[in-house]
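Q&A log
Question type: sequence-to-structure
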Amino acid sequence: NYLLGVGRADCTGPVAEVPLMGYANSDQVGGGLLTRLYSRAFIVADLEDSKRVVFVSADIGMMSQKLRLEVLKKLKSKYGDLYRQDNVILSGTHTHSGPAGYFQYTLFWITSKGLIKPSLNAIVDGIVKSIDIAHQNMKKGNLFINRGTVENSQINRSPFSYLENPASERSRYSSNTDKEMVMLKMVGENGQELGFISWFAVHPVSMNNTNHLVNSDNVGYASYLFEQEKNKGMLPGEGSFVAAFASSNLGDVSPNIKGPFCINTGESCNNPQSTCPVGGAKMCMAMGPGYDMFDSTRIIGQNIYLKAKELYEEASQEVTGPLSSAHQWVNMSDVSVELNATHTVKTCKPALGYSFAAGTIDGVGAFNFTQGSVEGDPFWDGIRDQLLGEPSNETKACHKPKPILFSTGEMTWPHPWHPDIVDVQIATVGSLAIVAVPGEFTTMSGRRLREAVKREFDSHAAPGMDVVIAGLCNVYTHYIATYEEYQTQRYEAASTIYGPHTLSAYIQLYRGLARAIATNTVQDLPRGPEPPVFNISSITLLPPLTVDRAPANKTFGDVLQEVRQQYQANEVVEVTFVGANPRTSAENATAHNFLTVERHNTTSDSWHVVQNDASWDTRFYWTKGQIGRSKVTIEWHIPHGTELGVYRIRYFGHYRKRLSLTHTVSIPFEGTSSTFEIIAP
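Response status: OK
Response body:
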């Protein structure tokens, strides 16, 4: 028996003009909303309430050090020492369609257009609010664990790197991805269903880098389906049941299960360099199972949801036992690793290799770099040396065979480009150990880490631990490939920023945490060096928020393109309004809803909201025009089984108006479509 609390809060942030975080493609800028982003918080406390563990999974690309430090600062001012560095795990789902701009290290500013305060604040506030809700709703309950295999939802996107791992190791596994989903189910003592956390390794990149609508991708769609089912009669984002689909060792795992094809010729490009005969690496893209990216997101999300549903319903193995947590800060650019009694190696100052610029088959890079580059290129080296400085001989030697593109650990202007100080953290809930990792472990890296942690627990009289990896936690350090995978220098290896022995260093560190928990000596662990906090106000290349303008003889919210009079299920209702910049709305309200679909109730002659902007079936598009003008188009993809009747679509916005030279205000407005009827086919 434990005290359990769950909470969910909106963390969407600005949906327009802000770059999306994930593909590092500066053209991929927000232009609307498909589904809202949420932070989902889970608190477990023992009945004496002497120990607590908090796990948060947020629909964002990854946690950042700045996010974590700000969240913990707010928790401290609210709750004192209840929620701390050691017992709060913050994990990102790794959607590539959420707003960027919440990092303090310079590298991430380049494609994020700097540090974007509205982005950062929305995520910090959303995470804290979700924890507040969980904290306020603690009740006695029970935990159950279950695990099972998810089929047809992932492929290894660097199979040639995976094959570099020893044959004896590979032969112990049936697949080159981890297909297992682990589920932790929470039930109140009166049988009330509270929610669950599941962990499964897949990249949320069913939405590709041509997408401009903010959304939570495949795992977010799985959460949406589960929460819609359990919170009956509620709009998306409402209701008390919380379903988290959290990330795991997804480093080399893609949901684009048809594999890589040349988009110009249609032939396969499943080769070690992921290149096409015509057009090179730029043309090689992996395809999902659907007819477009929305459909692929739906199919993969539904697969994951259906497995979770089965595991949830059948979960019967109860989790009992004490709670514990351990956390350290480590200077990852300077860890000595004892490989064996005679051999010690070291990690390196962070650096990114050439293949980092190649991207992956899920999202290719900009300049036709190819994966698997173990040679530099005099042209790019020359540009880099001029702009950013040449890597030192020491760093070059340390990272071999990686040819260094950006020696980020030696770049400090205006602030360091990459973190040196990294969080390592484990929390245990009875027999479940949650290993919170600061990046993207590949399939085999994850297996080695889980095994090492399990062995450590076993050898200190804590046998039978279920070890799960929670990905993208606390601070982002790109990828962690195995030493063998590192030698081929595909994207994941080129992005293993602390050099070839990164994984060995993490294994050593997490074993130390596991040992401390198992032997009850957590209080003796050194805290490690505190991460720096750079004093950055808001450095941003975002266009400034200007005054919004409506066309002549029109006003904000007027309909420019009307709906038809009748539709059938599976058709798309579309209406276009005179719009205003959605960023103005985001700065006015934490949870602004941009649209509703409403059904007319004839008996009461009133309108009833049936969908909102968090709904999977609605799409909100914002198009910027000249001199402050803009248009908003709202689509409703009428789902099968929609009740027949009379409907309308409404749009809610804010426009910015100038009162004087120095003073602007934002003014709320709304627009409503004509009514339309949904008829039987």
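Response note: Residues 293-314 form the longest helix (22 residues).
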